[in-house]
Amino acid sequence: MTSTCSTTCFFDTCVYHQAGIDLLARVIPIDNILFASEMLGAVKGIDPDTGHHVDDTKRYIDALQGLDDEQRHKIFEGNALRVYPRLKRRLENICGRQGVSA
């Protein structure tokens, strides 16, 4: 990834299979991955191989091998709060506390 793209290009995790998430994490720096999902229930269907709802994307991140807690935090919330600073301020206002961590 070029240095310009490494600070301006981001990829989300709205991918409906483990192999796709594994590839994403292998080729894209963790700092450039933002957690994403459909609205729960938007994609109707259950994977016949796993019995899980197709749109449950969190479980794919949970199953990624080799991520430490800091990297998981970055994907699930830290990167979004860094990329969208107004979101961080809004959450601080709603939660009534400082230190929503990025």
UniProtKB/TrEMBL annotation:
Molecular-function annotations in GO: hydrolase activity
Hydrolase recorded as keyword: yes
UniProt keywords, alphabetically: Hydrolase
Keyword set includes Phosphoprotein: no
InterPro entries membership: Amidohydro-rel (IPR006680), Metal_Hydrolase (IPR032466)
Domain Amidohydrolase-related: 10-85
Protein name: TIM-barrel fold metal-dependent hydrolase
Source species of the chain: Pseudorhizobium tarimense
Highest classification ranks of the organism: Bacteria, Pseudomonadati, Pseudomonadota, Alphaproteobacteria, Hyphomicrobiales
